[in-house]
Amino acid sequence: MEARNIKLEEIIRDENLVYTKTSLMTDKPLSFCPGCGHGVAHRVIMEVVDEMGIQADTIGVAPVGCSVLAYEFMNIDMQQASHGRAPAVATGIKRCWPDKYVFTYQGDGDLAAIGTAETIHACNRGENMAIFFVNNGIYGMTGGQMAPTTLPGMRSSTTPYGRDVALMGNPLKITELVAMLPGTCFVARHTVHTPLAVRKFKKAVRMAFENQKLNKGLSFIEIVSNCNSGWKMTPVQANKWMEENMLPYFPPGDIKVNGEMVSKTAKSE
Amino acid sequence: MGEKKLMKGNEAFAEAAIRAGCDAYFGYPITPQSEVMEYLAAQRPHLRTGMVLLQAESEIAAINMVYGAAGTGKKVMTSSSSPGISLKQEGISYLAGSQLPCLILNVMRGGPGLGTIQPSQSDYFQATKGGGHGDYRMIVLAPASVQEMADFVRLGFELAFKYRNPVIMLSDGIIGQMMEKVELFDQMPRLTEFDQQWATTGKTTDRERNVITSLDLDPARHERHNLKLQEKYRKMSENEVRFESIECNDAEYLFVAYGSSARICQKSVKIARARGIRAGLIRPITLFPFPSEEIDRMAGKLKGILTVELSAGQMIEDVRLAVEGKVKVALHSRMGGMVPSPEEVFDALLKSFSI
User: Any chain B CB within 8 A of the CB of A44?
Assistant: First the structure.
């Protein structure tokens, strides 16, 4: 009961400060489901833009899906793109502003199904930009349908008895695929579900922007994340399920650094 | 004034793009307009003016590159032919919804489907009535000569930026492929300085962030956005009607035709006049907005209107709407890449109105 008597000013003090909202995130409350990885991924990208002091030189592209609302939260100039076309839209921006930093923020259905051609060709041309690819194995915004990355046997609203690979094909490892293209400079897979993972992801994001500064080609970072609503789990269950099922199929780590393949698994595939 | 050259329509368009200070062209090869990108590539526009030229992996990618580049506030364009323009429709709808200026050339060929590579005018509905999803309009310019293939690039960019809206040049395989003398306008500067307050130039601390989007999930706000667009299209209709009238002052019979069909009808007017029939020609230069008022103004004095189209009859609907039954409107139509002779059109006039 005593706690109620503590005034807000007594709590908000410099010495009590352990965490602040990233200044480049807008004040709009995030509309993502509690426990979803999008919010963390958004924040980390904006932290890096802030730390590099490149807000005035950065343009983001958000296509259709849960990522479409990124421009509501990221306090930078942005363009919304039609479903799957973000790498083409970003190409148009980057070719007109070669000195600015351009990135796309796409989901798995967007990047690896409807936009496969745009993804592969932007990577193959080595467009000097960054692609952030959130893979949660499902179409989140449209209500949990099968995505190109849905695991074998995994249930979704369009695979209610589980993904039958004989009928529906195998999950697409598009990150390994783009790593084989000479245009990609840096290809990595991360998660954002633990503090350690977030720190590693942030380093990768920084590298993606630094690579642009040095005109090194395309940087591609996959973020394996949960979609607890779509998977019909609690956030904690979803992260555990992700670790046990998604990560063996989509193992985190660097795949290609500075144009050199570094992942043994990627090489053997 | 300008340099005179003998050029194909497609080449004149491409040369005019460089001279108009275009910042970027994104395209994909398709007959009968491939000369546009081939000419640009041979000219090395990057060295001439710094213009970006990129061959995309598809028509869809090309129009989305246009969307991205147009969002930066620069002068950008693409070109294609009918099946390719169909592929671009989603992107065009996004451009219109996001109010982005750009220039799109359609060198029409016959359809439906893969159709033919021969000339046609069967994309009139698609260009003038929307084409993609949602309520939107584009200014549609219809060149009838190689000269206009060049001149309308400059005009098209002016109109695109005046209204922050895509402008489409609706040409066809004849105008694109034929060679004529063209007087080229002088080199204009690229948009190195501009005041596009809305563009994605990078958010500075002294302004709010710029977001290029056509999405709004708030119904009331989205309705207001649509009303704003409709108001813009109304202004276009008020201010941008362009047409050419040939021998119309004393005309009893009127041809209405655009593009290559208008070139044929010009000759048919002469044939008719030589036979003592007072015929005239209205050539709409803008297909949207359509010169309805002018056609309606003449309707009372006319004995008949013949629209001539390389389609099953698409523009004829706008002509009929314009005259509201005041005068009989007939159609002479050829399809599949077939092109009528001036004599054939003249005969059609005689038959249609029992002259």
Answer: no
Strand-pair partners of A139: A145
B150 reaches A (C-beta below 8 A): no
User: Number of helices and strands (H, E) in chain A?
Assistant: 13, 10
- Asked if residue B25 and residue B167 are part of one domain, the reply reads yes
> Does A71 contact B at CB distance below 8 Å?
yes
All structural domains of chain A, each given as residue ranges with its CATH number in brackets, are 32-268 (3.40.50.970)
Helix axes A195-213, A38-52, angle to 10 degrees: 50
pLDDT tens digits, B81-139: 999 999 999 999 999 999 999 999 999 999 999 999 999 999 999 999 999 999 999 99
Residues linked to residue A156 through DSSP beta bridges, in sequence order: A159
pLDDT band at A268, cuts 50/70/90? very low
Residues B151 and B34 in one domain: yes
The answer as to whether B216 is a domain residue is no
Please tell me whether residues B176 and B255 are part of one structural domain: no
B52 vs A77: CB contact, 8 Å cut-off? no
* Predicted model pTM: 0.95
| Beta strands B3-8; A253-257: pairing state | unpaired
CATH number of the domain where residue B18 is located: 3.40.50.970
Distance from the Cα of B46 to chain A's closest Cα (Å) equals 12
Nearest residue, CB atoms, A95 vs list B52, B94, B205 = B52
Work out the minimum CA distance from B234 to partner chain A, whole angstroms.
Answer: 27
Q: Which has the closest alpha carbon to A82: B133, B248, B355, B28?
A: B133
Quote the minimal CA–CA distance from B326 to chain A in Å. 45
Range(s) of the domain holding residue B321: 243-352
Q: Least CA distance to B25: which residue of chain A? A: A92
Of B66, B202, B205, the CB nearest to A92: B66
On whether both B233 and B263 belong to a single domain, the answer is no
The CB-side HSE value for A158 (13 A sphere, CA atoms) comes to 14
State whether B185 and B255 are in the same domain. no
Q: Chain A window 108-167: which residues touch B at a Cβ cutoff of 8 Å?
A: 117-118, 121
Tens digit of each residue's pLDDT (9 = 90 or more) over A233-256: 999 999 999 999 999 999 999 999
3-class DSSP state of B322: helix
> In this structure, are B185 and B279 located in the same domain?
no
